[in-house]
């Protein structure tokens, strides 16, 4: 009964915390709510008229939704780059940032699931994925593996921080014997969610653009660059607008992770380009369409030729320690690297896989306003959830929210 009483008190205190704040905080939450309402309106149109209101067709059946899903899986997996040093290697420099990273993973995973629901057309078809009721097709289908690993990773990233915060809310010290095994498991699970997603694409034999042995490792490299880059930007905002102070050395250490991952990602990109263009075959047409266009079709050229220079520029600047240790330069590099990988891992990966079609037909894809509205709404949902989680966690971590003080 006492735990139930504490839990009820935690919920009430969390609601009080998240509904109170500065003027800037309320403007931020109101803005996110407004964007979510726009997303809901666009989604209601999609529910009424179906996926015909999107830019997707039977030729290009994955678009903006799956592009964002693929990218956000990497953002969620990036939390492991803070979990492992903190809980496994006992590096105290990461301790302040780890709960923020796990909160970001929870928000990213919820956005992943929301994008999957949006891409399926609506929530009414989700029953097909329920074991015993629908056709789950486990273990033959890679999609069912993806469902399992995503939901399992979401459970780990909710339960571990909740236990730690619940104990600290009571003024008690969390027991490492309880949360460390889960943290170690989450390290392997984070790798699994990204590899399984990569295998989902690699297993489609009719899409030669994805039949690449480097796809899985490159997924991980890009994830461990973009994810921690976003974490650095979030920590910068938290340092500016809250009393939760993150030390410079913590941000610089995460910056080193971003640098190494970005360098590996760039090396793999060069390797893929060599494979596609040094001795091209008819299977290289998708890559040619992406980078140079085919038969006058050039919809993706502005995207990819924005992403590549940004990727190269960020990696070069981060490579020099003097520049990387300048926080303003680090924030700039993290921002452009995040944008570059979002483009490259989204439009640059998903759409070209469908072009040209099996019979050589080129049907280009451009997202509609409805798709963009739903996408922005889901991103706003993720930011809204993360803000609530971070605000409550920071209050508990700083000792301003405790059960024993009531």
TrEMBL record:
Known InterPro entries for this protein? DsrP-like, NrfD-like
Q: A Pfam family in this protein? A: NrfD
* Protein origin, superkingdom: Bacteria
Q: Which GO terms describe its cellular component?
A: plasma membrane
Q: How does it sit in the membrane?
A: Multi-pass membrane protein
Q: Would the keyword Membrane be found if you checked this record's keyword annotation?
A: yes
Give the UniProt subcellular location, in the record's own words.
Answer: Cell membrane
Where, by residue number, does the polypeptide cross the bilayer? Answer: 27-46, 66-85, 97-118, 147-166, 178-201, 221-242, 254-274, 300-320, 329-352, 372-394
Which keywords does this Swiss-Prot/TrEMBL entry list?
A: Cell membrane, Membrane, Transmembrane, Transmembrane helix
The similarity comment for this entry is: Belongs to the NrfD family.
Q: Which NCBIfam families match?
A: DsrP
Protein name, as recorded: Polysulfide reductase NrfD
Record organism: Aquimarina mytili
């Amino acid at each position: 009964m006492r735990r139930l009483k504490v839990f009820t008190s935690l919920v009430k205190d969390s609601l009080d915390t998240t509904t109170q704040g500065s003027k800037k905080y309320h403007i931020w939450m109101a803005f996110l709510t407004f964007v979510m309402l726009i997303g809901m309106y666009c989604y209601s149109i999609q529910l009424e008229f179906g996926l015909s209101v999107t830019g997707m067709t039977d030729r290009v059946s994955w678009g903006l939704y799956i592009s964002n899903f693929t990218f956000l899986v990497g953002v969620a997996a990036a939390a492991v780059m803070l979990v492992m040093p903190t809980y496994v290697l006992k590096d105290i420099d990461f301790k302040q940032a780890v709960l923020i990273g796990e909160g970001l993973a929870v928000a990213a995973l919820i956005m992943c699931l929301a994008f999957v629901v949006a891409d399926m057309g609506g929530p009414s078809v989700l029953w097909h994925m329920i074991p015993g009721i629908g056709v789950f097709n486990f273990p033959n289908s890679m999609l069912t593996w993806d469902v399992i690993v995503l939901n399992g990773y979401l459970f780990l990233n909710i339960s571990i921080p909740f236990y730690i915060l619940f104990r600290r809310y009571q003024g008690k010290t969390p027991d490492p014997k309880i949360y460390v095994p889960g943290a170690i498991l989450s390290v392997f699970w984070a790798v699994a969610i990204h590899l399984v997603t990569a295998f989902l694409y690699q297993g489609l034999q009719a899409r030669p653009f994805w039949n690449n042995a480097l796809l899985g490792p490159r997924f991980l490299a890009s994830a461990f660059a973009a994810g921690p880059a976003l974490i650095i930007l979030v920590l910068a905002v938290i340092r500016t607008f809250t009393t939760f102070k993150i030390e410079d050395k913590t941000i610089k250490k995460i910056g080193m992770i971003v640098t190494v991952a970005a360098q590996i990602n760039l090396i793999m990109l060069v390797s893929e380009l060599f494979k596609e263009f040094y001795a091209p075959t008819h299977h290289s047409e998708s890559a040619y369409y992406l980078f140079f266009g085919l038969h006058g079709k050039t919809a993706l050229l502005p995207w990819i030729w924005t992403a590549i220079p940004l990727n190269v520029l960020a990696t070069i600047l981060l490579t020099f320690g003097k520049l990387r240790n300048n926080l303003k330069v680090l924030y700039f590099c993290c921002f452009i690297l995040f944008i570059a990988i979002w483009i490259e891992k989204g439009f640059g990966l998903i759409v070209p896989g469908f072009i040209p079609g099996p019979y050589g037909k080129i049907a280009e894809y451009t997202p509609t306003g409805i798709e963009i509205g739903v996408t922005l709404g889901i991103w706003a949902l993720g930011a809204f959830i993360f803000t609530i989680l971070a605000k409550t966690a920071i209050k508990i971590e700083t000792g301003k929210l405790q059960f024993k003080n009531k």
